[in-house]
Amino acid sequence: MAGDRILGEDRLRGVLDLFERLRERPPRRHGDRLRPLLLLLGPKAGTSPVAKMFGTRCKNEKAPYSHIAEEHPPADVPGVLRQAKRELSQPGGHRPGEPALRFPLLDMALWLNDLRDIRLAGDEHRPPSGATAAERENHQLVRKVTHPPIVDDENARRRELNRVIRRRGRDLLGDLETGPRGRPATFLGFLEQIAPIGVAIVALVSAGTAATLDLAYAVLAAVVGLVFVTLQIVARTRGWYGVRRFGWFLRQPYLADDPPGFLGFALGVFDPRPVEDAEHREKLDLLLIAAFLEDLRRNYHRDVRRAAWARVRYPVLIFEHLPPGHAGVRFLELLARVRRDGRDRRGRPAVDPLVVTAGADPAEPADPSDPSDPSGGRLVDRIAAAFRLDLGGDDPADAPGARELWDRHREEEARVNALGARRVLRVDVTRDSGVNLPPVRPARRRPRFAHPALPWIAMVAIAASSVTVVSVVAVRYCSAFQIRRTSSGECIGITDGGFKFGEVSEGENNDNRLSPVLARLERQNRAVARSGKPHATIVYLGPVTADPAIKNRQLDLLAGAQGELLGLTMAQAEFNNASPYLRLRVLVANAGARFQHARQVAEQVRDLALRDRSIVAVVGFEQSRVETQDAIKVLSKATLPMVGTANSYNETGRLDRGAGFSPYYFRLAPPNTRLAEHAAYWARTGRVGGRPARTVDVISSADPHDLYSRDLAESFTRAFTRAPGGGKVLARRYENPGDLDRTVHELCEHPPDLFYYAGRSDEFRSFANVLQHTCPSGQAVLADDEIAKYVADNAPELGRVATFRLYYMPLAAHEAWTDTWVGDRRNVFFNSYPGAVASMFGAAPSRDRTPSEVRAAVSYDAASMIAYLANQVFTEQAAAPTAGGVFAALDDPGKGPLWQGASGVLQFTGRAQGHQVTGKPVLLATVRPDGAVEVTEVCGRLVASGQKSGHCPPAATAPPPASPS
Question: What integer pLDDT is reported at residue 893 of this predicted model?
Answer without folding.
Answer: 82
